[in-house]
Specification:
Helix content of chain A: over 70%
Strand order of the largest sheet of chain B: 6-7-8-3-9-10
Distance between the termini of chain A: 18 Å
Structural class of chain A: mainly alpha
Strand content of chain A: under 5%
Shape of chain B: globular
Radius of gyration of chain B: 19 Å
Number of helices of chain A: 12
Largest sheet of chain B: 6 strands, mixed
Mean pLDDT of chain A: 90
Oligomer: heterodimer
Number of helices of chain B: 8
Structural class of chain B: alpha/beta
C-alpha cells in the first residue's frame, strides 16, 4: 500500500515537473515575442519573433532556404556533429589517459602539470590561426580548437577523480593480491568514473561552444558557419534556427553521456535507492 | 532490500572447530618507527616486541596515537620499519631498509571499510582468489556463497552493492572477503569503532563465529578494553606515544565465548588487571594532547 502511495507521489511529482518545464518554455517564448513585437525598441524590432522562426523552421519551402525539409540544414548538422564527436572522442581518450597518469604517478604529475597549467588559460579561439597553420586546413583546425576545451575539462576532472579515491581501496587491492594493472582496472578507473563523467558533461558543453565559435571563423559548413553566414546575408530567422539546433544537439549529447554514465555506474544508482 | 530483513544470524549450526593452524605465527621484535615529516622527528613506536602463536587472537589496546595502527600497517606491508623486524612463520616481512610489501597472506579489514563500492558483494568476495588466479570463477563463486552463508546468511545479499548493506553487514562481508584468500593472519583495524553498542555486541558474536570457523591468527586493534578481553586470547596494552608494550594479559576465558561471560568473575578480574594501565595511558595521552594544543 505504501509502495503504491509512493509510486503515486512520484508520478504526481514527475507530471508536475513536466508541466512546469513546458510553462518555462512558453514563458520564455512569450517574453521573446513581447520583446520583439511589443517593446518600443528598434534594435529588438529587427529580430525575428518565435512565430516567424517556427514557421520558417517547419516550412517545406522556407524563405531563406533552411528548414527541416531542406538538405542543407542536415548537411550543416552533420558537419557539426561529426566535428563535435571527433573532437570529443579524441579529448576523452587523451584527457582521461592524461588525468589517470597524472593522478597515478607523482613524477608524471610534476612533469605534466606545469605544461597543463600554462596552456589551459589560453582561450581556445586564440589557437585558431596557429591551428590552421599546423593542420594545413580549416577542417582539422576547427576540430582541434573544439578538442582543446574538451580535453582540459576531461583531464582535470579525471585527475581530481583519481586523487579523490580513498587510499584504503588501493591498500585493500594490494592485500588481495592485485597487480598494478589490476589496480588500474579495478580501482582507479571505476573509482574515478563519477568525476570522469562530470568532466565529460562539462567537456561536451564546452565543445559545442567552442565548435560554434570555431566554425564561425574558419569553416565552410556547420551550424556555427550557418549562423555567421545568415547574419551576413540578413537571414535572421535562420540564425535562430541554427542556434536552437545547437541547443538541441547539446542537450541530446549531454543526455547521451548521462545515460552512459548511469549505465556504467549502476552501483551509485542502486546505492542511492534509484535502481530497480 | 527485503531479502536482508530475512537474514537470521547463526542460522546454521556451526561445524566442528577446525584444528589449530600450523601457519600464522607472528614475531614482532624490537620494532621502532620514527616519522620525520619536514625534520620534525616523531617517534611513533619504540622497541615493540610481541610474539603471536599461529591461530591466536591478539587484541592491541591503547590510547589514540599510541602507534597501534602504525604497527598494523607495518605488519600489513603498508609502512616501513625504522628498526627491528617482523616475521611471519620465520620469514622476514619487514625490517629496516626493506621496502614494504603487502600480500594476501596478511589481509586487512579497515577501520572505515574498504569494500569496493562499484562491485557487488559476490564480486568483492571473489576478488582476491580471482586476481591471484587461485580458483576459477565458478569455484570462487561457489566458495564465496558457501562462506557468506556460513557467516550469518550473507549469501542472500550476494548480488547487492556494499552501500545497500548495513555497516555491520559490510564489515562481515569484508571479513569474508579477507577469509576467501585463506590468509595466515587477519589484521582488523578497529572494525567496530563507529558502531552502536547493540550492533557491536552482535558483531562480536559474528566475529567469534568466524574465528571458530577459520581459526586464523587475528591481530585486532581496538580502543575498547571490554571488547578486547571478550574476544581475544591475549590482550596487549600499549603506552602512549612512543608506543611500547606496557602489559601482556593472557585471557583465560574458555571458548566458545558467550555474552554471559561478560559478568563472570574471571572477566571482571581481567578487566580490573588491565583497566589501571589503560586509563593511566589514556590520561597521559590526554595531557600530552592538551600540552600540544597549548
Amino acid at each position: 500500500m505504501l509502495n503504491i502511495k509512493n509510486a503515486d507521489n512520484i508520478a504526481d511529482m514527475r507530471s508536475r515537473r513536466f508541466w512546469m518545464m513546458w510553462l518555462g518554455y512558453l514563458g520564455a517564448a512569450a517574453l521573446w515575442y513581447a520583446a520583439v513585437k511589443l517593446l518600443p525598441l528598434d534594435s529588438f524590432r529587427r529580430l525575428p519573433d518565435p512565430v516567424a522562426v517556427v514557421t520558417e523552421w517547419l516550412s517545406p519551402s522556407p524563405t531563406f532556404g533552411v528548414s527541416v525539409f531542406t538538405a542543407p540544414y542536415y548537411k550543416h548538422i552533420l558537419f557539426s556533429v561529426y566535428r563535435a564527436t571527433a573532437a570529443f572522442l579524441i579529448a576523452t581518450v587523451l584527457g582521461v589517459s592524461l588525468g589517470i597518469c597524472m593522478g597515478w604517478s607523482r613524477s608524471f604529475h610534476s612533469f605534466a602539470s606545469a605544461l597543463l597549467g600554462l596552456l589551459r588559460p589560453v582561450p581556445p579561439l586564440a589557437w585558431v590561426p596557429l591551428a590552421i597553420l599546423i593542420f594545413a586546413g580549416a577542417e582539422s583546425a576547427v576540430i582541434f580548437v573544439t578538442f582543446l576545451v574538451a580535453f582540459f575539462a576531461t583531464a582535470l576532472n579525471t585527475l581530481v577523480g583519481v586523487r579523490s579515491i580513498d587510499p584504503d581501496y588501493f591498500r585493500a587491492a594490494a592485500c588481495l593480491g592485485a597487480t598494478r594493472k589490476d589496480v588500474l582496472i579495478d580501482v582507479i578507473i571505476p573509482g574515478a568514473l563519477p568525476n570522469i563523467f562530470t568532466g565529460l558533461q562539462i567537456a561536451m558543453g564546452a565543445a559545442w561552444f567552442s565548435l560554434a565559435a570555431g566554425e564561425m571563423i574558419a569553416a565552410q559548413y556547420g551550424l556555427g558557419f550557418l549562423i555567421m553566414e545568415s547574419y551576413n546575408l540578413v537571414q535572421f530567422p535562420t540564425i535562430v534556427i541554427a542556434m536552437a539546433t545547437l541547443g538541441l544537439l547539446g542537450y541530446l549529447s549531454s543526455a547521451l553521456i548521462r545515460a552512459l554514465g548511469n549505465r556504467l555506474m549502476r552501483w551509485r544508482e542502486q546505492a542511492m535507492g534509484f535502481g530497480a | 532490500m527485503s531479502g536482508q530483513a530475512a537474514v537470521t544470524p547463526f542460522a546454521r549450526p556451526a561445524p566442528a572447530d577446525p584444528a589449530p593452524p600450523e601457519a600464522g605465527a607472528l614475531s614482532i621484535r624490537g620494532v621502532c618507527k620514527t616519522y620525520d615529516p619536514e625534520g620534525a622527528c616523531v617517534e611513533a613506536l619504540r622497541d615493540c616486541s610481541v610474539e603471536v602463536r599461529a591461530g591466536e587472537f591478539v587484541a592491541i589496546v591503547g590510547p589514540s596515537g599510541c602507534g597501534k595502527s602504525t604497527l598494523l600497517n607495518m605488519i600489513a606491508g603498508f609502512d616501513t620499519v625504522s628498526a627491528g623486524s617482523i616475521e611471519l612463520d620465520g620469514q622476514v616481512l619487514a625490517s629496516a631498509g626493506r621496502p614494504p610489501q603487502p600480500g594476501p597472506d596478511r589481509v586487512v579489514v579497515f577501520q572505515h571499510g574498504a569494500l569496493f563500492p562499484w562491485k557487488t558483494v559476490l564480486e568483492n568476495v571473489t576478488y582476491g582468489p580471482l586476481r591471484q588466479k587461485l580458483l576459477s570463477r565458478a569455484q570462487a563463486e561457489e566458495k564465496a556463497v558457501d562462506l557468506l552463508h556460513r557467516c550469518g546468511g550473507l549469501d542472500s545479499v550476494a548480488g547487492s552493492y556494499p552501500a545497500q548493506l548495513s555497516s555491520g553487514m559490510q564489515r562481515r562481508v569484508e571479513i569474508v572477503r579477507a577469509l576467501m584468500n585463506d590468509p595466515k593472519v587477519l589484521l582488523l583495524d578497529e572494525p567496530f569503532r563507529a558502531m552502536d553498542t547493540v550492533s557491536k555486541t552482535t558483531m562480536h558474536q559474528h566475529l567469534l563465529d568466524m574465528y571458530r570457523l577459520c581459526r586464523k591468527t587475528i591481530f585486532f586493534i581496538t580502543h575498547d578494553l571490554e571488547e578486547a578481553i571478550y574476544l581475544a586470547d591475549t590482550v596487549i596494552v600499549m603506552t602512549t606515544r612512543p608506543g611500547m608494550v606496557k602489559q601482556v594479559i593472557p585471557v583465560g576465558l574458555a571458548r566458545p565465548r558467550v555474552p554471559k561471560m561478560l559478568y563472570s568473575q574471571e572477566y571482571m578480574r581481567l578487566k580490573r588487571a588491565a583497566a589501571e594501565g589503560v586509563h593511566e595511558e589514556a590520561r597521559k595521552a590526554f595531557e600530552r594532547g592538551e600540552r600540544e594544543q597549548a
